[in-house]
Amino acid sequence: MAEGQNAVAVDLSEGDASASEESIDLTNKSVVKATVLLRELGRHRHGITVTEIAQAVKMTRPTAFRLLLSLEQTGFVDRVDNRYMLGWQMARLGRLADPFTGAVARIQPVLDEYAGKLNETLSFAIMRGETSYDVIAEASASRYLNASHLYVGGTYPVHASATGKLLLSELSDDKISELLPKKLESYTAQTITSRDALLKELRQIREQGYAILDDELEEGLYAVACPVRDGAGVLVGVLAVQGPVQRLKSERLPSTIDQLRQAADEVAKALA
To answer: Which end of the chain is more exposed for a tag (fewer CB within 10 A), N or C?
Structure first.
């Protein structure tokens, strides 16, 4: 009996080693699909039909319906008439969860890597609303003179920060005119204080795909910000590099922007 048990143990051990080598996928595909539905529901506060959500996530309608029904029974999804939306259990768990710890753990290695490559300070801001954000992570350069330990947890004027400008560029000109006064607050001699002048710059940001801050918040501070988007192209955050104007505003700026874009793509993959 003992010999038989030992033989079984050896067989299992060999099987585990083989399975490890083959990197067997242990994920539950139904659970993955359910989380995809929940993430899509988060984009539709007033609800969405099963047909619409199935099309949005490229899932068959019967599969989407079955998963939504299961999620509804457990309180993670609510249904009003024929429209589905996030349920009370999602709200309860959301209040209990730390919204940033998991995200920071995923993206910090990317920030550290590119802060080393650029030898400047990088920061990542996550979206909270159309014009609001939280800076949740930072990686510092090795230089003695750098802009570090300034951004995490901070809030900055949208018209006088690279991240804020990028957020504004996602909105229409009409929407921006509703949100901002004609005369904007000044922080330095270079701050854009005219709403019309800001609108002109935001149009340029939309075309080039990045925002620049040049001596506008603090004298000597220069920053570049690139968008971080999810698989559907929705803006989820902003990655920015900042440092002294004499270093960043130089012949290496195009290379810095290219590397920042690469870093933004890697952050997006890490968050996906």
So the answer is: N
Q: Which CATH superfamily is domain 101-271 in?
A: GAF domain (3.30.450.40)
Dump pLDDT digits (tens) for 218-258.
Answer: 999 999 999 999 888 999 999 999 999 999 999 999 999 99
pTM: 0.66
Region of 270 (left: φ > 0; alpha: ψ -120 to 50; beta: rest) is alpha
Q: What token pair was written down for 155?
A: 């809030």
Which residue shows structure tokens 């029904």? 69
| Closest to 111 in 3D by CA, of 134, 132, 141 | 141
Residue type, 70: S
Give the integer Cα–Cα distance in Å for 17 and 9: 12
Domain spanning 2-94, CATH architecture = Orthogonal Bundle (1.10)
Beta bridge partners of 200: none
H-helix or E-strand spanning residue 239: strand 235-244
List Cβ neighbours of 40 (8 Å cut-off, separation of 6 or more). Answer: 48, 53, 56, 57
